[in-house]
From TrEMBL:
It comes from the Bacteria. This is NAD(P)H-dependent oxidoreductase subunit E. The keyword Cytoplasm does not apply. Its cofactor is [2Fe-2S] cluster. Belongs to the complex I 24 kDa subunit family. CDD domains: TRX_Fd_NuoE (cd03064). GO terms for molecular function: 2 iron, 2 sulfur cluster binding; metal ion binding; oxidoreductase activity. Pfam families: 2Fe-2S_thioredx. The keyword Metal-binding applies. Keywords: 2Fe-2S, Iron, Iron-sulfur, Metal-binding. Binds 1 [2Fe-2S] cluster. It comes from Crassaminicella thermophila.
Length: 157
């Protein structure tokens, strides 16, 4: 991975967050949210710190991290490609779009390319069904896609 994420500085930030929420009820979610922002992911090393800091069992933390899509165990790529697999998009051929992206960048759904550039994700409905099928790259949204649009979109990044 190009960027170093497990720096002392980041762990110091995490400590601050833990101290801030330590004595509040329901501290886990806000701490995890901040951890995801600080590190770009919540891997086991980070979960362990949170577990010790908040006195919450690792198993519980792991369960939460793997349940909610906003948390990831591995660092995400510089660009996160989300292909909506909600009903409207699915019906309009989202699977073909995913297959084409996989082929173009050689990455499986849920994985990051070895150079750390792209992460491919399948998402739920993002509320743009009128534009189905839809894909997002970070904050950018592309709609009414056909398979052959994929290479041109990826080229921009
Ligand atoms: S189903 Fe894809 S945006 Fe709603």
């Amino acid at each position: 991975m190009a960027k170093k994420i497990f720096t002392e500085e980041n762990f110091a930030k995490l400590d601050e967050v833990i101290q801030k929420y330590k004595d509040t009820k329901g501290a886990l979610m806000p701490v995890l949210n901040d951890a995801q922002k600080i590190f770009g992911c919540v891997p086991l090393e980070v979960q362990k710190k949170i577990s010790e800091g908040l006195n919450i069992p690792m198993a519980e933390i792991y369960g939460v991290v793997t349940f909610y899509a906003q948390f990831s165990l591995e660092p995400k790529g510089e660009y996160v490609i989300g292909v909506c697999l909600g009903t409207a998009c699915y019906v309009k051929g989202a699977q073909k779009i995913i297959d084409r992206i996989k082929e173009e960048i050689n990455v499986e759904v849920g994985k990051t390319s070895p150079d750390g550039k792209f992460t491919l994700e399948a998402t739920r409905c993002i509320g743009a069904c009128g534009l189905a099928p839809v894909l997002t790259v970070n904050e950018d949204v592309y709609g009414r896609l056909v398979e052959s649009d994929v290479p041109g979109i990826l080229e921009k990044y």
